[in-house]
Amino acid sequence: MYFKISFRISVMFTTSFLKKYKKKVILGLIKRNFSKLNIIDYILKLEQEKFKKIVIKKYFIAKLKKISFFIRYTINNSLLRKKANIYKKKMKILEYILSVLSKKIWNLLIQIPNLLSNNVPLTKDLVLYQNFQVAYKKKVLTHWELGKKFHLFTCASHISGSGFNIYVDQGAKLQRSLIQYCLDENIHAGYIEYVLPFLVNKNSIFGTGQFPDKNKQMYFLEKDKLYLIPTGEVPLINVFRRSLFNINDLPSKATSFTSCFRREAGSYGLQGKGLNRLHQFDKVEIIEINSDKNSYKSFNKMVLHVKNILSSFKIPFRIINISAKYLGFTSALTYDFEVFAPGQNKWLEVSSVSNCTNFQSHRMSIKFIKNDGKKDFCHTLNGSSLAIPRLFAAILENYQFSEYIQIPKVLINYFMDNKILL
Questions:
Q1: What string of DSSP letters covers 62-94?
Q2: Distances in Å between the alpha carbon of 403 and those of 146, 220, 408?
Q3: Using one digit for the tens of pLDDT, what is the confidence trace for 254-305?
Q4: pTM score, whole prediction
Q5: Is residue 74 part of a domain?
Q6: Residues 211, 205 contacting (CB under 8 angstroms)
Q7: Residue 355 CA: distances (Å) to CA of 156, 272, 330, 335
Q8: Which of 47-51, 87-91, 296-300, 316-320 is least confident?
Q9: 133 shares a domain with 104
Q10: Mean pLDDT: which of 161-165, 192-196, 275-279 is highest?
Q11: Average pLDDT in the 5-34 region?
């Protein structure tokens, strides 16, 4: 399948890289359970074919130069001109073939996911941290039952269809409080706030790796050729597209609040009930751009930052090192943060912190100048701090009482009250 994006845009892998590190790439893809391993040999075969055509093209160019020289100094040169025209026609055919081969190679290269960090577990997700061990024994309500009981939110199916919600009165107030608190915590930690568009072009989507991985999950406006963002990471990292950083200016840290839009959300049943899965949801995003040597320092700091925010809510949560089987297309290493929702007796993901190494920066040409003056591609990292609907749900279910819902201490100044009353 071909994607209508200019193949001049850079990709993570090049044919020379695949040729040089073929075994390393194949081993990395096997760890990911990547099923299209034959793609590597096919790319190298096409590249070999392309190289042969380039050699022939160079031969024709040399012949044309030679003929052009003789045409200048020959009176009766009609035969030479015919030969020149034949070579020119062959050149045009070759250029077309080379263009087709280049496009084929490019469309295959963009299907190869990022290589894994050595810290990624291969077969099973690994729980790294959990602040909650004992299961709830008392009967508690789900957040959708609490939403109805306290008139906090309702389904917007009559306005937009399933997978959309309306937050009402104190529910809207709690939603806004969570957004502002998370933003303030990010800003306090040195992240620069951006207000961003929710519609982006195809190059922005490609740059962060949603193409070809999540093509069918996004909303697309056919008339304007624009996509509704599936995550705030897309416009936020694209702010820095084609940037050149001095190494002393790294890391570059940014945050933004956005609404996010995904088709794959909103499934039926318990999995998609209430605020668990939505087509439109609010999220506060953080990203960092750093050098290759320091990107995992940034990763650890981002993980600690999200951990501190979740700890401040005094709700049960855990941190999971995602296995190769479930790792995202662009990520080399991802930690998921999950909060426990006692009403549902289940864990809900509220954040993912990922190191995408130089995968995205190749696509967006984000570079830095080293101390020796040479340029290299940056490493990009992203994280949710936090996905608001599931955090909202977990707070309701963990802070519920029969006649009221307690507001977490850190949110009282934002909510301007310590309880949600009936």
A1: HHHHHHHHHHHT-SS-HHHHHHHHHHHHHHHHH
A2: 11, 44, 16
A3: 999 999 999 864 444 445 578 998 999 999 999 999 999 999 999 999 999 9
A4: 0.90
A5: yes
A6: yes
A7: 36, 28, 9, 9
A8: 87-91
A9: no
A10: 192-196
A11: 82
Cα gap 270→345, rounded to integer Å? 12
Q: Are residues 104 and 171 in the same domain?
A: no
Q: Is 172 helix (H, G, I), strand (E, B) or coil?
A: helix
At residue 260, what is the residue type? Answer: C
Please choose, from the candidates 369, 349, 343, the residue with its C-alpha nearest in 3D space to the C-alpha of residue 147: 343
User: Residue 325: what residue type?
Assistant: K
Contact of 211 with 111, CB cutoff 8 Å: no
- Last residue of one domain, picked from the residues 81, 109, 137: 109
Can you tell me the distance from the alpha carbon of 140 to that of 401, in angstroms, rounded to the nearest whole number? 9
105 and 56 assigned to the same domain: yes
Per DSSP (E only), the strands in 179-251 are: 192-193, 199-200, 220-221, 226-228, 244-246
- 400 DSSP 8-state letter: B
pLDDT given for residue 268 in this prediction: 45
| H or E segment to which residue 111 belongs | none
Q: For residue 307, what are the domain limits?
A: 126-421
Number of domains in the chain: 2
Q: Would you say 368 and 244 are in contact if contact means Cβ atoms under 8 Å apart?
A: yes
Residue type, position 355, single letter? N
Structure tokens at 2: 């071909």
Intra-chain end-to-end CA distance of the chain, in Å? 55
For residue 1, tell me if it sits in a domain: no
Who wins on pLDDT, 363 or 216? 363
Nearest residue to 132 via CA among 341, 315, 313, 305: 315
**CA-CA-CA-CA torsion sign (136, 142, 145, 148):** positive
Strand partners, 167: 153
